Structures are given as C-alpha cells and as structure tokens.
Write a sequence for this structure.
C-alpha cells in the first residue's frame, strides 16, 4: 500500500523492561497533538505498550517570510521487553492550513491528506518538500526517543550534585 512508516527494534542489553517502560512513558507523555483538547496517550501496563498521537507544523517559504502550510499528525507506538524495545511511527496525515479573514493561519476543514498519496503536478514540488520535512522531523523524534530510552537509574543518580559543606 506504500504507507510511510518508521519502525525499528532497538537492542538495549542490560535494561529491565520496567525501566524501558518508564522511559518510554515519560517520552511519549511529551508528544502531543497541536492545539488538541483531548489526550491521546494510552498506556497498557499488562502488554507493556504505549501509544500516542503527535503533530508538527510544516512551513512554506515565500519571498519575504515563512507561512504555515499545514500540520502533520502521526501515530506513535512503543512496545518494550527486557533488553529491547520496538517503536512504530505511522499514519502521517497532512492537514492543510489557509489564512482566514483576520490574517491568521487555520486548518482547512476536510482537507486531510495521507502523506503517501500522490498529488497533482502543480503541487508536486511542495508536496515533496512536505515529505522531506516529515522525514527530517521523524528522524529527530527517533533520536530524542533513543536518547530518552538510554536514561537509567544510574544516570539519574549521577546527575545529583552534592553541595560542598566546607566552602
């Protein structure tokens, strides 16, 4: 079907399932959908799975300044076991924005396009740029996730700085 998906199983030798789960939960709590009123975070302690929705803006650059072209929503899920975890980032949906009569950018109702869909010739160049931005932002998200998953009790302890009493 050609759906854009980022998927990886990451080996973390020596990390307990509970620690990985806590790290994943704290990371996925920070992932949010822009201006959403409801929370999408689902934490399942029996299966050791966490799912959430996230989003980010995509900009188009004009001659003078940049403008919001739209927002991309995605689903992210994380499953953990002893010594490894698996993440999946998928279901990228582009929601087009337009300027309203007050000059503010707002979402166009009903204009949600899956990222894997091909667009007409006129919009093709902009669409490819949006896809590249999604790729770059996803790589950044994955890097942040991986650095958060490394976090362990030992590194928590070393971060505490002891005050020297004899100054």
């Amino acid at each position: 079907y050609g759906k854009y998906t980022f998927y990886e199983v990451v080996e973390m030798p020596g990390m307990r399932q509970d620690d990985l789960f806590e790290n994943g939960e704290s990371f996925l709590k920070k992932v949010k959908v822009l201006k959403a009123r409801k929370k999408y975070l689902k934490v399942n302690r029996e299966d050791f799975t966490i799912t959430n929705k996230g989003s980010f803006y995509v900009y188009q650059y004009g001659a003078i300044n940049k403008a919001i072209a739209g927002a991309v929503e995605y689903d992210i899920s994380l499953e953990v076991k002893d010594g490894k975890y698996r993440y999946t980032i998928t279901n990228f949906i582009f929601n087009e924005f337009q300027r309203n009569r007050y000059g503010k950018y707002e979402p166009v109702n009903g204009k949600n396009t899956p990222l894997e869909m091909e667009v007409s010739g006129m919009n093709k160049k902009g669409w490819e740029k949006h896809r590249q931005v999604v790729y770059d932002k996803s790589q950044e998200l994955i890097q942040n996730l991986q650095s958060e998953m490394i976090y362990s009790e030992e590194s928590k302890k070393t971060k505490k700085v002891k005050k020297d009493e004899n100054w």
The chain has three helices and six strands. The chain has a mean pLDDT of 84.
